[in-house]
Structure formats: C-alpha cells, structure tokens
Amino acid sequence: MATNVIGVGQSALAAAQAGLVTTGHNIANASTPGYSRQVVIQGPAGAQDMGFGFVGKGTEVLGIQRVFSEFTYSRVLSSQTTAASSTAYSTRIDQIDRMLSDADSGVGPAIQDFFKGIQDLTANPSLAESRQAALSSGEALASRLNSLDSRLNEMRDNVNQEISSSISQINSYADQIAALNKAIEKAEGTAGDGKPANDLRDQRDQLIVELSKQTKVTTVKQGSAYNVFIGNGSPMVVGEQSYKLVVAPADPANPTLGTGATTGTTTIVPDNALPGGTLGGLLDFRKNSLDTAQNTLGRIAIGLGMAFNAQHQLGVDANGNPGKNFFNVQVTSQAVAGAGNTSTAKLDATVVDATKLTTSDYRIERLPDSGGTSNYRITRIADGAILPSNASLPSLPQTVDGVTFALSGSPATPMNVGDYFVAKPTSAGAGTISLNLTDISQIAAAAPYTAAADPANAGSGKLGPLAVKSLGGMTLPLTLTYNAGTQTLDSTGSPAVSIPVTNGSTGTVAGVSFTFSGSPANGDKFYIKDTFDLANNVNGSGDNRNAMQLAQLQLSNTLGDTGGGATLSFQTAYGQLVSQVGAKASEMKVMAKSDTAVLTQAQEAHQSESGVNLDEEASNLMRYQQAYQAASKVMQTANQLFQMLLQLGG
C-alpha cells in the first residue's frame, strides 16, 4: 500500500514539476513575438480494482498544449495585410500631393506666370524687356516640368527599390517557413499525429504574420506542414519546397514580377495578382497614382508644347522670318517590348493630335492570323478598351487616341504572333520639354498677314483683325472685291472664294479668319467695288496679333482625356490632377488610419486569447508550487509508512 502511495506522490510531483516548468517557460517568453502561452494537459492515471473498489494511481501529463485561436489569428493576418497596403499607399501619395499642390514647386503657378509673360508681350511686342520676360517665363515653365518629372522619377526609383526589398523579405520568409515545415514534420511525424512542437509552430505562425505584412497570404494545411500562397494564388511554399518571387525588368521604370521554384522557369505575375501588404500597396500606388501623375504631367507638357509651337509657327519674328518651334517637345517614344517576345521588332508611339491624347498606356499585340491576314490589337490599359471600337487590325501603323503606333526600322522588322509592346506616349513628356528659342528676336509675336483697305474705296468697310490658323493656302497678294448686289467679297486670285459679309460678320479664307465692319459704298446704277489687299507683313517687330493668339491658348480647350477631343485647358487639366491626387491622398489617409485601428483591435483580441498574462502566470506559479509541496508531503508520508512497516517486520 505504501508503494502505491509513493507512486501516486511521484506522479503528482512530476505533474507539478511540468506545470512549474511550463509556467516558467511562459514567463520567460512573455515578450517573444508570436509566442502563444502553453498549458499542461493532465488527467487521472488508470485506477486499479482492489476488490472493494477502484483505487486511483495518481495523475499523468497528457501533453503540453499552446493556447491558439485560428479565428483571431486569421483576423490578424487579413487586417495586417490591409493596413500595410493602405499605409504604404498613403505615405507615398501624400508626397505627390504636397509636391503638386505646392505654390513654389507646382506647375499651376508656372503656367500662369508663362502666359502672364505672353500677355505682357502682347501689350509691348517691340519692347526687349517684354520679349525677354516671355522667353524667361517659357524656360521657367519647362524647367518646372522637368523638375517635377525628375522628382517623380526619383520617387519611382525609391518605390522600385522598396519593391525589391519587399521581394527579398518575402523570399526569405518562404525559405524559413519551408525549413520549419521540415523541422515540424520531423518532430511530430509526417501525418501530424505526434506531440505538437509548440515553439516551432509559433515560429512558423509568426513568419506567416510577417509575410502578411508584405502581401496577401493564404495557408492550406497538409499534415503538419503549411502550404503558403500569396496574392491571388501564386505558390510560395509547398511542403518543404519554397518558391521565389523575382523581378523581371522588361521595363526598367516598372519592372514586372514573376514566381518560380529555386530551379526552373519563371512565371510572370501581373501587378494586380499580388494585392495587399506593403508590396501590393507599392504596386497599386505605382500603377494608379504615380504612373497617372507622370502621364498627366507629360500630356500637359506635350499638349502645351504642340499647341504653342503650332500657333508660333503661324507668326513672324522680329527679323521678318516665319516663326519656328518655341519649345522642343518629344512626341515620339519607343515602346517597351514584352519579356517573352520572339522577334527583334521595335515599335514607336508618336503623338499626332494632342487634343485626343489620354493619360493611359497602351498594349499593342500580334494575335494569330485570321484567314491569312495579319491580326493586331491595341488596348488602352487604363480602362481595358480595345481600339478602335473593339476591332482587330490587319496592319500597322494605326492611329488611336491621337497617337500613331508604327513598327520602326528600315526596313521594319515584323512582330511575331504572341509578341506585344507597352507604349507610354506621354510618360516622358514633362521630363524632355525644353525651350527651343535662343534669342528674343525669334519670338514670332506678329501675324504673317496684314489687311488694308484700298485708299480709293468710297465706302467705310474695314477688314480685320486677322486670325491665322494655317499658312500656305493662298497666293499673295490676294484681292477681295465687294459685290454690293450679292453682298459678298469675291477673290481675284487663288483661292477663288465668295464670302457673304455684313457689318460685324466674320469670314474665313484659306485658314485666315477676319471680322468685317463698316458699310461698303454702293454707286449709281453701276456696281462699285471696294477692294482689300492681304499682303505679307514684312516687319513683325511691333505687331502683336500672333502674340494675342498665343495668349488665348491659356483658356482654350486644347486637351482631352477620353480620346474624343479637346475639353480641357492646360490649367484645368493640371487642376484636375491636383484635385484627383488630393482626394486620393485624403481617402488613403482615412483608410490607413481606419485599417490600423482594426489591426490593433485584432492584435489585442488575439493577444488576449493566446498571449501571456503575467498576473495569471504568477497565480499559476503559486498553484503549481503548492501542488509540488503537497506532492512532496505525500512522498514523505509514504516513506514514513514504509519505514514503519519495516520496523514491524524486523
């Protein structure tokens, strides 16, 4: 009987000792990230039938179990992914918002200053100071656009570096998770029916938490192992095998991503297939805000430069020469070839009509031939629209949204089936615009034509002012003769026109519009002809008529954003960009704050369930200490009984 008592005492002592060790382990790891508190699971040992009843044999430790809630853990993962994404996006778009809306560095004030300089030129076309101010303000505008584009490129470089850093962390976590899968399976058995390796499982779960900060994570249990997938299902860990996320830099400005095993081929993963986490936030920001901001600035620069150059070429400078380009504008850019292209073809995108220009990039691809005819498709990436009108195209070049896409080279190398290009027509516009004029005398403030009434006219009719929209459509001098019977101006020379006129009416001949005023004379029974001569303006130094046309471009709708025509002025287009970025920055700030609050709640809920409570552990320590002391007393009593039996037997 004493022997049975000793066995019971020994089991109680062992259970109390396990409790003390486990409690101490909890206390020691109270600050260890990802540690789940552990508890001793014990139960009664099998009883023995003594005839008069079953007598217990003490207790046994069934296992050490970690307190872990799958529900609260999954909430931490999802909220961690969402909060990291919105925070990454918010931090970076805030930089663009402050940069674009800054009165000192934004483009809006520079556009206003530039056209103020042109307006001053209109008032004083022959004044050297006014001409210099116009030239300087144009250079300042180009410099401001260059500076903003440079800062956006720096931001892009930083984002790409952060993407690479995030990828390195993801790959490191994948390797560690795969190694822990192997260690856990070895410790517990492949079927997962052994004793749980609690500390190893905590380490693996914590690595998955860290991984969820970088991207969306999905786990699938397979025995004791976890199969880990990121984004929309790309595998990163399958059992003991880890995969790699890599950068595929087909486009140095926007490197794409791919996944693959340590050995073998790489599969390209679209940016939108890796949502959530810091990586998803960076990819989302780069595509939807950074690219849009840079493309919009480029569209403004190209649109302004092309419109201003076109009107400037319609004027005459102070030396009597036709106006030349005021700005240097890069209208042609080389598209980026797809990573898997099998041909050496090259493709150029050339802006031909800025009024139809959008802020989107474009995908140009060669599809399988149809009925023996080549088959191409152009997709506007921003909205996925296939242009034009969902049609496939038999050949290149093709012009859509004011951009001509054409294979380059002489002769041009054709695309193979499956080849594609990504064209960015406006991306480099703001970074490459520059002032072309080098001297104030080259400013074409004057109009190329003048209108004057013949001194012999009997009436008071006047022709003017002239607005020149195109050149080369007429032979100079052109004579217009008033026909009182038909009330028209009939031309003598080329082109032959007959223009109805009344006092205050407008007319156009060969791209030159004018306003007619006054009352032409009407003689006796014979028709009297008032004659007007349009002759070359050979001295443009004091003429401001083309400068007036240039100044009017400030408020003219010269840009479009849907490919359908001009609906925006330069100032309005920039204002829309500032407004859109500001609204997105405000939205992401609110989202980041809200998502962070949700994450904190999820972490607190999980910690309250699985974390170590030092007050509770102190209570457990005292409880197990008392149990250990009581078990020791049982052992001591059993020993005394045993000694008493020996004495009686002696």
Please characterize this protein's 3D structure.
This protein is of the alpha+beta class. Among the domains are: 2-67 and 611-649; 73-287 and 564-602, no CATH class; 449-536, no CATH class. It contains ten helices and 30 strands. A six-stranded antiparallel β-sheet has the order 5-6-7-8-9-10. A five-stranded antiparallel β-sheet has the order 13-20-15-16-17, with no helix packed on it. Helix 1 (2-28) runs antiparallel to helix 10, helix 3 packs antiparallel against helix 4 and helix 6 runs antiparallel to helix 9. Mean pLDDT is 86; it is low at 522-533.
Largest sheet, in brief, is:
6 strands, antiparallel
What share of residues are in beta strands?
Answer: 15-25%
Order the strands across the largest sheet as they lie in space.
Answer: 5-6-7-8-9-10
- The count of strands amounts to 30
Uncertain runs: 522-533
